[in-house]
């Protein structure tokens, strides 16, 4: 019998049900001595006799009967809970809470769709925000982060290849202000910036022929 960590109470209930220490021992896969010691230890802690014992029979005392009636439902519930936790379903189910930056979600729709097709019993609860929160402290199961904002102690798995971002403008804007050809030219143009969670404006990261620059 697989026990749930409340052995003494399970032993007590088995003896009460079988009205025999030996029969209870066989049911529980324990020795008769271990069963007797478990009951004796419980009686000592409760400071009450739970069984009347003779050479031929074992019967609950009045106090033992009341105690068994009170604990039996609770022990049964604990056993059911232990069995449910120990039994892992073949397919995961439940809700997966994810925290992600707003700018990343559009890149992950295909991944989310594939995940839900593979695990139809799962639900995704996705919170998007600009600030970087403590994933564990806020109660999330997982977080999605840009590589440059990953904490050093975080275990991470890449979800997408490196994303290439481009600087674009409308034809009308370029007709009026000219087309920039290098990072220095951008200093003379208007741009739409993104304010980060720490309050600063995101610095564009530019790269050409392996050489990095910022604007």
UniProtKB/TrEMBL annotation:
Domain (HTH lysR-type): residue spans on this chain: 9-61
Highest rank taxon of the organism: Bacteria
Gene Ontology molecular function, alphabetical: DNA-binding transcription factor activity; sequence-specific DNA binding
InterPro entries in alphabetical order: LysR-type_TF_proteobact-type, LysR_HTH_N, LysR_subst-bd, WH-like_DNA-bd_sf, WH_DNA-bd_sf
Pfam families from the UniProt entry: HTH_1, LysR_substrate
Gene Ontology BP term (one): DNA-templated transcription
Keyword terms of this UniProt record: DNA-binding, Transcription, Transcription regulation
PANTHER family: HTH-TYPE TRANSCRIPTIONAL REGULATOR, HTH-TYPE TRANSCRIPTIONAL REGULATOR PGRR
Family stated for the protein in its record: Belongs to the LysR transcriptional regulatory family.
Protein name per Swiss-Prot or TrEMBL: D-malate degradation protein R
Upper lineage: Bacteria, Pseudomonadati, Pseudomonadota, Gammaproteobacteria, Enterobacterales
Recorded name of the encoding gene: dmlR_27
